[in-house]
């Protein structure tokens, strides 16, 4: 699968900074997600389990399917089982 370029929304940029999420982790999930879930028409959730500070978290990226795709927001959660499909 080839690398896809994404636009990062202003909201996503603020949340990435506020939540101290590494850009490298975001790029990894965008380019090679462990799961892609349909949220609603035109919107998908890219998610992967990542190690952050010795703990396993689910990193969830909300993406609008435009051309190019837009990263709407990003968050991590320790509640992996709640969201894992």
UniProtKB/TrEMBL annotation:
This is DUF4258 domain-containing protein. Pfam families: DUF4258.
